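Changelog note: in this version the structure field was regenerated for every chain. One regenerated record is shown below for reference.
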Amino acid sequence: MAWLDFMRRKEVSSEQLGDYFATSVKAPNSTVIGRRPTMSELAARYGMLVHRCVQINANTAASITPRLFALGDTQTLTKARGLNPKPLSQKTKDFMRGQMSVQPSSSVMRKLQGNLNDIVEIENHPFLDLIEDVNDQMEGVAFREGFYSDLQIFGRNFTLLVRDGSKQPTSMWRLLPQMMKIVPGKDEFISHYEYGSGTEMARYEPEDIFWVHQYDPSDPYGGVGPLEAWIQTIDSQFGNAAFIENMYRRGGSPDYVLMAKGGMSEAQKRSFRGEFRRLFGRMVNRQDTVAILSGEAELKPLQRSPKELQTVEQEQFTVDALSMAFGVPKSLLTTDDVNLANAREGSVTHALTTILPMLRRFEDAVNQRLLPMWSDRLFLMHDNPVREDRDIRIRERPSQLRAGYTVNEIRLADDMEPLDDARANEPLVGTDLIPLSMVSTDAPDELDVVFDDDQEESPIEAPDPVEEVEE
């Protein structure tokens, strides 16, 4: 029966993907954790601490300039209209070979298979001009900051590609995720994009939009960023902040209560409030509120209980929750004193678990969907964001020297110029690490003693014999 089932089985072809598209286009509006927020609601959550977390990640990732590489030797690429190719540095080769603590993105690794000896870096190319001058209103760092920020806030980023009649884009413009709608197709995954609403809605074809999104467990057209993933936890923080704001502005009690024994008419109340504000309202722009009640006249300030205000524990919980949500070291979100060891460890962890995945996502998207518009031989790669600990590198150098490395080999590995000395290319031996050519093979008959020029020579006296002590 199994054999007959196999014979009756039909392979799925690209033309039969309509059933998949028809099932995927209708994503559920809710999940087991409750109703999902809209893009506009996510934009409204962009408060102080969220802004701080997003900016730390986005600025750090955007500050690492992407580099362009090509498959081919330097001599061949030099003839290709001034691409200004240059050979790879030793550090770049080590990173590409996977000899560092991390490896490049998967799209880069596919390009490197069997081609590591035929790769050069391109310093002049139209794509580099585009990525550093994306349009007449935005430069490259700001564009990359917006890209990484959108992925953290909305879980998706949309970029409009403007071609001006050419095959390759001539400029790129960021589109607001809260204004974008993906329209699925019956015979294709995406029919088109709709940007805006009403009569001002613009329609864009799939090839006009560069769309990058995070993984979404319930919507193949969506994207779940850190803000939405932790929205319920963050909701309590926004609720607390809203309570404080409401208490201060509308729901709070008056600053003073005036008790009048015999009562006061409305005219007297207005007169008192006007005189009170005239006398004290100009002091550092005070805007005290006064309540007037009948009874004995006595002016008393009303003080709020500390429990009604935001507590230290609540603030600490907010910092901890957002630190975990966005992968930002807690030392960057608090003013508490942090020792150097914890700060270093936090920076390494931040680069490894937060910044590196963001760079890889950008590399994979660009290498798969943008750079092929110019050539399949091009690929984008960032430098390794995980900086090796300098102390570890300092301790590593002597061990490499004792293992047979030359001085120039270590200098080249650290991207330093080699020394113009023949002995720097010789292995070092001995406890003092002297060049091998300086070691004599014959054992000396006498011990040579070196003296300073201003010191008289004197023979080395033998030590006095040690007398045995009788018990």
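Spot check on this record: Residues 396-438 form one domain. The radius of gyration is 35 Å.
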